[in-house]
Amino acid sequence: RFEDARGRYIEYAKSTIGNQSLSGLKIVLDCANGASYLIGPWIFSELGVDVIKTAVDPDGFNINNDCGALHPEAISGLVREHGADAGIAFDGDADRVVFCDSEGEVVDGDRILAMCALDYQRRGCLSHHTLVVTSLSNLGLHEAMKAAGIGVVTTGVGDRHVIEKMRSDEYNLGGEKSGHIIFMDHATTGDGIISALQVLKLMKESGKPLRELAACMDEFPQKLISLVVREK
Predict the structure, then answer these.
(1) Number of CB atoms found within 10 A of residue 188's CB
(2) Per-residue pLDDT reduced to its tens digit, 136-174
(3) For residue 197, which of 10, 58, 6, 8 has the smallest C-alpha distance?
(4) Model pTM?
(5) For 74-98, what is the mean pLDDT?
(6) Helices (H), strands (E): how many in the chain?
(7) 36, 58 in Cβ contact below 8 A?
(8) Which long-range contacts (CB under 8 A, 24 or more apart) does 135-140 make?
């Protein structure tokens, strides 16, 4: 047991953006009454973010209950109410993150992956000029990456498959439409807090709102249909 695990994680998370100040940004932070309920708000506040927190009172039963990444509509209304720059919603174990822009519009994992890949490519740090996604990612993401000269590798559904491919072929950015984003330079799996910090850093450095950054791809019509099978 590491008695100082909490402090170690907080300092490491902040170091992934070089302890850069994020002052001037105002966010609504939904911690899903889960794992991030305590240190999530601390980390963003310590970096200068004006944080309006919600779903930070776990009682052992209310995790993901009408809140968090599974219910982004909760932060959409709060963002508009408070005039925030963005909304950030983690799921219960905080490996997933879903955003909404200043208008309350949900920004899913595909758009986050697209804007981060474009930023990595501009800065020359996108490993093998390639992004790793699953078969559920929108065709619009593929088209946007193709136009930018970025390759896309597609895996089966599940962040485990994305991570395995990233490790085997040494890619450093990948994830899922659902909000599992893997920044392999900073973490060995999806980490919602670290993912959110990377996005806020991009907003701060570019001076662009999330809505403008997320407009880097056009979403194609897409429908997911579940099929009944005799056996899995």
Answers:
(1) 10
(2) 999 999 999 999 999 999 999 999 999 999 999 999 999
(3) 10
(4) 0.93
(5) 96
(6) 8, 9
(7) no
(8) 136/176, 136/177, 136/178, 136/224, 137/110, 137/113, 137/176, 137/177, 138/110, 138/177, 138/217, 138/219, 138/220, 138/222, 139/220, 139/222, 140/110, 140/217, 140/218, 140/219, 140/220
